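Backbone-to-sequence.
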């Protein structure tokens, strides 16, 4: 696979983004939703910020308070046996309980605009910010699907009651309308197809089942983008391969002559995140036609291997111009990068099911 990583990579780093308050620091500008609007590429950054801590033994967790519309700052002692601080992203419960109690940062979305995909201007203020009790730990990993004149922005909504997928929409990237949670916890990595197929909207989603099943990709349909049903299991993990432990949709499905091309992420149990592709039937996206045996992009460059959470390439969107796929992607849960790939080369690299 010929992958052309931009020479300026990483394109946007935390240092390029001003914190939204002076007692905070930006630790991530990554996993951005991508679309085009008024001849510009919109890079809807997931900005992760944390309160500056002077004391190494205290971890401060920012929590949105829907009653006051302010952030509360929780202070945790790293020697507290109730918690495990080894994952830089989360504060885990110790013992049998499992799962995370708090996050070490709070994410929201900020707009970066670019005419050429290389140079950016970043808005001064947040565009989408936590606003209700299902978003108290933040909002993450936005994807943007344009349908007619409306941009649907959907993302992980994180709170103590779970991680689900919520949606807002905008027509002008100034005002937003809230649509609430469209996939209940635990669910992430929703990707809404950009047009109806046989009269129905389709979405990929990634539940995390507990008593049976794995974090794998499902597909659902809807007539109004808000209520999703007729769920089907679409794509499973593959033992010993790059997508053996977790997976989820990445970019908005790309319509090609051969089918719907979905660029998705897969990870191994040691948290190495790669991007690969799956091709779905044009007239029935619940049917898988072909899939990547090898990743189309894997963490190799230093900015992909090292960072806040290293060995991660994670795309939430691409811009397609003819045969060129400009895949924007988050690197190491820290910054944004872009790589160009050939659409036909991706299609030719897939292993077709018999
Ligand atoms: C995982 C990671 C974190 C994220 C939480 C909540 O632990 O992806 O970065 O904040 O989930 O979504």
């Amino acid at each position: 696979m010929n992958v052309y990583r931009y020479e300026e990579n990483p394109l946007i780093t935390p240092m390029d983004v001003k914190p939204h308050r002076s007692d905070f620091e930006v630790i991530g500008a990554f996993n951005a939703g991508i679309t085009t609007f008024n001849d510009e590429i919109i890079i809807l950054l997931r900005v992760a910020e944390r309160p500056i801590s002077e004391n190494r033994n205290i971890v401060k967790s920012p929590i949105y308070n829907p009653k006051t519309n302010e952030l509360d700052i929780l202070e945790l002692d790293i020697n507290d046996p109730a918690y495990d601080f080894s994952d830089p992203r989360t504060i885990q419960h110790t013992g049998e309980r499992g799962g995370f109690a708090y996050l070490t940062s709070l994410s929201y979305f900020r707009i970066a605009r670019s005419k050429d995909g290389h140079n950016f201007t970043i808005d001064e203020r947040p565009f989408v910010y936590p606003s209700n009790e299902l978003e108290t730990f933040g909002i993450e990993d936005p994807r943007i699907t344009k349908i007619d004149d409306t941009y649907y922005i959907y993302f992980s909504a994180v709170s103590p009651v779970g991680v689900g997928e919520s949606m807002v929409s905008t027509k002008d990237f100034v005002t937003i309308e809230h649509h609430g949670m469209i996939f209940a916890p635990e669910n992430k990595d929703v990707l809404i197809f950009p047009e109806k197929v046989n009269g129905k909207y389709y979405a990929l989603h990634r539940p995390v089942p507990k008593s049976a099943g794995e974090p794998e990709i499902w597909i659902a349909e809807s007539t109004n983008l808000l209520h999703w049903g007729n769920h089907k299991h679409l794509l499973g993990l593959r033992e010993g391969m790059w997508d053996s432990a977790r997976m989820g949709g990445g970019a908005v499905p790309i319509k090609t002559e051969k089918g719907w091309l979905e660029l998705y992420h897969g990870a191994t149990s040691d948290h190495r995140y790669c991007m690969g592709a799956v091709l779905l039937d044009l007239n029935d996206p619940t049917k898988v036609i072909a899939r990547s045996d090898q990743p189309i992009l894997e963490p190799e460059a230093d900015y992909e291997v090292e960072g806040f959470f290293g060995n991660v390439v994670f795309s939430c969107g691409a811009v397609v111009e003819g045969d060129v796929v400009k895949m924007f992607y988050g690197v190491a849960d820290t910054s944004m990068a872009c790589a160009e790939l050939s659409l036909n080369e991706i299609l030719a690299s897939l292993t077709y099911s018999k």
